[in-house]
Amino acid sequence: MKSAEELNVISKLIVDSFYSVHAELGPGLLESVYEVCLIQELKIRKLNTLSQVSLPVIYKGQKLDKHYIVDLLVEDEIIIEIKSVDLVLPVFKSQLLSYMRLSGKRLGFLVNFNVPVIKSGIQRVVNNF
Q1: Could you tell me the pTM of the whole model?
Q2: What is the 3-state secondary structure (H, E, C) of the chain?
Q3: Can you give the residue ranges of every domain in the chain?
Q4: Alpha-carbon dihedral of residues 83, 85, 88, 93, nearest 10 degrees?
């Protein structure tokens, strides 16, 4: 488990990646396009990134035959959920928090690329951090 300081350094690199992708592509594309481009930006920054990661559902200590899919997992520590929508609904943040609780991750980002200025599309989400 990385320290808070290490997570903050990684977070800054992730946010820089959001800015780079948005500057290059702008709003209005599919989430899948932003995902592959974001993976490239994270690789440039030498961050280990997995996409479409399956999270098992464990209920009362038993692994069930269901799972969730996380868009990106960076450095095995930070979950990124990618959106390209007109309106970010509260359920999107709740979904990210649920993924974080299920996986024991302390930090996540909800990023909506369908905005004129990317700063307004980035939400940093903390789970017991």
Answers
A1: 0.93
A2: CCCHHHHHHHHHHHHHHHHHHHHHHCCCCCHHHHHHHHHHHHHHCCCCEEEEEEEEEEECCEEEEEEEEEEEEECCCEEEEEECCCCCCHHHHHHHHHHHHHHCCCEEEEEECCCCCHHHHEEEEECCC
A3: 4-126
A4: -20
Contacts of 41 (CB under 8 A, 6+ apart): 16, 17, 20, 21
- CATH architecture of the domain with range 4-126: 3-Layer(aba) Sandwich (3.40)
pLDDT (tens digit, 0 to 9) for every residue of the chain, 129 residues total? 889 999 999 999 999 999 999 999 999 999 999 999 999 999 999 999 999 999 888 889 899 999 999 999 999 999 999 999 999 999 999 999 999 998 889 999 999 999 999 999 999 999 974
Cα 105–chain centre separation: 11
Edge-to-edge order in the sheet of strand 49-59: 49-59, 62-74, 78-83, 107-112, 122-126
Nearest to 71 by CA among 61, 88, 83: 83
